[in-house]
Each structure stands twice: as C-alpha cells, then as structure tokens.
Amino acid sequence: MGGFRFVVPVLLFGVAACSSPSPPPPAPPADCARYESGPVEPALGHRAVVLTLTNCGTAARAVSGYPDVQVLGPEGEVLDVRVERGSSYMAIDPGPGTFALAPGKSLVTVVSWANTVTDGDVVTGSALTVASKPGEAPRQRTWARRARSR
After folding, report:
1. What is the pTM assigned to this prediction?
2. By C-alpha distance, which of 13, 55, 15 is closest to 33?
3. Which among 50, 132, 130 is positioned nearest to 83, based on CA atoms?
4. I need a labelling partner for 109 at 20 to 30 A (CA). Which of 58, 61, 63, 99 fits?
C-alpha cells in the first residue's frame, strides 16, 4: 500500500527582523576639514611627508597662504623649531595661493626637513600639528608610517 507524505513548511518570525530602520547618519557640518599624512619619504639625509587637506564639509572652504605647522616632541610639547616656507631639497614651492576648496576636493603640502644635525642641539620631533587657516584649532598628525626603504 502506497502512502503519502506531507511536508508542512514552518515559518519562523523574528521580532528583531521587524524593528524600525536605523536613523540616517548626521550630515557633515558645513565647515569640516580632514587632514591625512602620507609616509615619510627619505632622500640623501632629507625627509619629507605629504599632508593632504580635504574639505569634508558641505560648503566651499576658503584656504589662503601656507598652513600653520608646529613640531611636537614625544610628550606632545611644542618644540622650538623654526619653520621656513619655500622650496626645499624634496619639493618646489609654487608660492602661497588662495583657493575656494569645493566639498570633497583636496590640497596638498609637503613638509620637509634635514635628517642630519650640523649645528646646535639634536631635536627629535614625533608629530606635527597643522591648521589650514588662522584661528582654526590645529589637528595633530603623527609620523606613524615609516620611511620606505630604497
């Protein structure tokens, strides 16, 4: 005698699957800047790092002149280091400019230094602060990435 077999599907409902969707993330502020640093590049006793400023806001960002850069020591203290603007062994300076940086767009600057000391005391910096305009709170960038070996 032949028999029949019935399969009854079982539906499981989860309460979590019926929860409301998460709220959208907050919109970025109109005035927002993100700073990133590249690796420290070596060259014949010199070093350089490229700093990138990206406008992550929703409005154009006015940028004029050179960024304000300070060198910090291992404890975060500002070191007495003279910062000069202009061309170096590692980069040619096109001079200061004025820009209306559109949302999502970036500008770059190169910070370079000599890796040898020929006069005075040895000063070892471990981080930079950078601000793109006067009155802006500086952002700290560490030199976490090592120089590439060549």
Report:
1. 0.71
2. 55
3. 130
4. 58
